[in-house]
Design a protein that fits this description.
Layout (H helix, E strand, L loop, with lengths): L6 H9 L3 E5 L5 H8 L5 E6 L2 H14 L6 E6 L6 H6 L6 E5 L8 H11 L7 E6 L6 H11 L1 E5 L11 E7 H33 L6
Parallel strand pairs: 1-2, 1-4, 2-3, 4-5
Antiparallel strand pairs: 5-7, 6-7
Length: 210
């Protein structure tokens, strides 16, 4: 789901233009995997726990694949992202968060950081892998909608419990633009089909007798 998708996304991957941010990365498993799939890209791993960051630094050093992907780690508390945005002003194509919401109070600062770091554009995605702890997914999705995010899920994914899923989110206005482009393509294809039918009908018309 992360690397693949549309032809445009695959082209970006091949050209090494992926900028990936992981929030609450822990020891960095997701982000390090992303770096292996993202040659010549950029992956920034973040966490707010000091001890975790010390162990993460070791993991990054020992497990980073030498494929041209720049992997770096930064201490980050959600909601306090000004320094990160200043350091990475181009922002990120993907923001990842896996099993990070344990308290309701964490939802708002998490989503504020997502909105501040996620690039504009329909291809920019926030991928939330949600496992229920002390917070329901309904509260998370409600807050996401209020922040201006829309979501979708892959129904083929088998969940182990209600609400546990990978939620693919993007900015609401970007989703609208993507939908509009899809409708334009459909209308264009329909128009071409109609023109083809009309031309065919004209070809079958009897010749004029003068």
């Amino acid at each position: 789901m992360l690397f693949g998708g549309s032809e445009q996304q695959q082209q970006q991957q091949q050209e090494g233009r992926r900028h990936v941010l992981e929030l609450g990365c822990g020891l960095g498993l997701c982000g390090l995997l992303a770096s292996q799939l993202n040659p010549h890209g950029v992956v920034v791993l973040t966490d707010g726990d000091e001890l975790t960051m010390e162990k993460l630094a070791v993991n990054v050093e020992e497990n980073t694949v030498r494929n041209g992907c720049a992997v770096t780690a930064r201490t980050l508390l959600w909601g306090e992202h000004v320094e990160l945005v200043t350091e990475f002003p181009d922002l990120f194509d993907f923001v990842l968060a896996a099993d990070v919401i344990y308290e309701e109070e964490a939802i708002e600062p998490l989503l504020k950081t997502v909105m501040a770091t996620l690039r504009e554009g329909p291809e920019a995605l926030f991928l939330l892998s949600f496992a229920r702890r002390n917070v329901s997914i309904e509260k998370v999705l409600k807050a996401a909608k209020e922040m201006g995010l829309v979501y979708e899920v892959d129904e083929s994914f088998v969940c182990s419990a209600k609400g546990e899923h990978v939620y693919v989110m993007r900015r609401a206005q970007q989703q609208q633009q993507q939908d509009e482009r899809g409708e334009e393509k459909k209308e264009g294809a329909s128009g071409e089909s109609s023109d083809s039918s009309s031309n065919s009908a004209r070809d079958d018309d009897p010749p004029l007798i003068t």
